[in-house]
Amino acid sequence: MIVLNLLFGFLLVFAGRNLFWLCVGTAGFLVGAQCATALGFSSDWMALLMAIVLGVLGALLSITFEWFTVVFGVGFLGEGYLLMSIFSSTIQQDPYSWLIFVVGGIVGMCLMIIIFDWTLIIISSLLGATLIVNVFHGTEGTREGLFIGCLLTGMVVQYWALKGIRDQNVKPSVH
């Protein structure tokens, strides 16, 4: 699992915007694993199976219904998962913790609709950085530094890739 977290983490950090289907599939997998735990699936294989099914379903839907699935999968599921990760200590004591997921999801979907490219870059970099940092068990300061480094590097690399694509689409004017 460590190798997969690192692989998907680096792919999302550096190419999440271009590999949107991977971003949606990863968000589906992470939410599936979290749902399996929340629904009380005690066996690891059942939780893994639920996560794989949701991840594959998300990736297939994102290829078929590209725009809608990316907005829902990355915006709603991705942002919802990120907020649940941030407030994980609060979640365990609050029966209404699912509201954190829903609010994060709604905000993520709205951002995806308003500023699609940048939201996809930011959420994919956040998801990737989260996956990478979760593999390491260093001090809190080291983990935070690694997270911020991965996040900023991913955002810069994906912005340069987006800028390069946009610059290639600009046709020189002929006088």
SSE order: HHHHHHHH
Distance between the termini: 58 Å
Query: What shape does the CA trace take?
Result: globular
In which range does the helix fraction lie?
A: over 70%
Task: Report Rg.
Answer: 17 Å
Total beta strand runs: 0
By helix and strand content, what is the structural category?
Answer: mainly alpha
Number of helices: 8
In terms of quaternary structure, what is this? single chain
The percentage of residues in β strands lies in under 5%
**Biggest sheet features:** none
What can you see in these coordinates?
- The protein has 175 residues and is an all-alpha fold.
- Helix content is 83%, strand content 0%.
- It is built from 8 helices and no strands.
- It has helices spanning 2-15, 20-38, 44-64, 66-86, 88-91, 98-114, 116-135, 140-169.
- The longest helix has 30 residues, at 140-169.
- It starts with a helix and ends in a 6-residue tail after the last helix.
- The model has no long low-confidence stretch (mean pLDDT 80).
